[in-house]
Specification:
The structure is a homodimer.
Chain A (H helix, E strand, L loop, with lengths): L1 E5 L3 H12 L3 E6 L5 H9 L4 E4 H5 L4 E4 L6 H6 L8 E4 L4 E2 L7 E2 L7 H8 L4 E4 L6 H5 L10 E5 L2 H14 L6 E5 L4 H5 L2 H11 L4 E7 L2
Parallel strand pairs in A: 1-2, 1-4, 2-3, 4-5, 5-8, 9-10
Antiparallel strand pairs in A: 6-7, 8-9
Amino acid sequence: MKIAVLGTGDVGRQIATRLVGLGHEVRLGSRTRDNPAGLAWAAEAETGSLETFEGACRESEVVFLCVRGEHARAVLGAAGNLDGTVVVDVTNPLDFSSGFPPTLSVANTESLAEQLQEAFPAARIVKTLNTLSNPLMVDPRQLPDEHHIFLSGNDADAKAVVRRLLESFGWRPHEVLDLGDISTARGTEMWLPLWLRLYGVLGTPLFNIKLVRAT
Amino acid sequence: MKIAVLGTGDVGRQIATRLVGLGHEVRLGSRTRDNPAGLAWAAEAETGSLETFEGACRESEVVFLCVRGEHARAVLGAAGNLDGTVVVDVTNPLDFSSGFPPTLSVANTESLAEQLQEAFPAARIVKTLNTLSNPLMVDPRQLPDEHHIFLSGNDADAKAVVRRLLESFGWRPHEVLDLGDISTARGTEMWLPLWLRLYGVLGTPLFNIKLVRAT
């Protein structure tokens, strides 16, 4: 599958490397083609190249959005025509302007995912993977028990495409819970403040939640 | 222990019944002493009585606050002198004025727990149990696996008192995570939007989260 990964930070490179390993045609996208982290990734990767955001997205069936929340809208705006494209929104609207822990720049009555879907109405946005740290996103079997992630999006076919990719990362079908339409991303984005506190208490980002129900 | 439980709804009655069963001297508090749910509870309970908020809190060492978030501040204001009292804040600032799912009336840059601590600076407020449904609060072993709850509060001794009560409910020591000061309640209150969506997807309120970490 032709896949663009926008963002050369830890999340983008981690996902891009995993996708290359799964045999996809991966282009990492950055604002410029001389991004050092992106060039280093491309030099190490067996296949895959560094492109501009627009170059990476051209003809891509799926676009992973892995930039800081504050840049999400501008980056999708620079990505060219996204009509019909499945956009996997991994971002969180973290606002570090008042220090740590960050607050959210959008919360409660809307979410970053909804803002992006509204700004790019023909893109098929699916929010997922924003609830845990990047090593676990692409290798969930690192944890010694089952654990869960979530899907939010308005397009059932797009969610099915994303679900298959997640399963190829190692997520078991029952571990991926479809919460409903894109507004349900409010819930997963608002999980971040608790995640950040738990990171402090547990002393590792390598944790996630398992939903335990009564039998 | 002399304990007041403020609020005659499901949460208050559930907690009051559990405390009676554990041998505590429990007074259920309501705005008026003729509250029907409260009278019915007192008639059924082996011990325990229905009082006004102030009557219930008089001489109580611990006060459970189990009212709707919108009433939390007024109810504590009607509770009389709370200086030094351990107040277990089980509330959530849910705002149903725009329908379902509710939004939060306070979030992100503050929390209801912080507002209460600021309004009643000599009370020792501990936020806990607001992250799961009331049958599980007082009987966590209903679930077939370990699962976790959280403590937020500024007073270590008060948190220790609450921890012991939680353990008497059946919570295992390692299942009760101390997140830190009262501001960490932002995280657990902001968990509610995701909890509400999961309630819809799972079809039962009898679930909770287990934190799974890398070994």
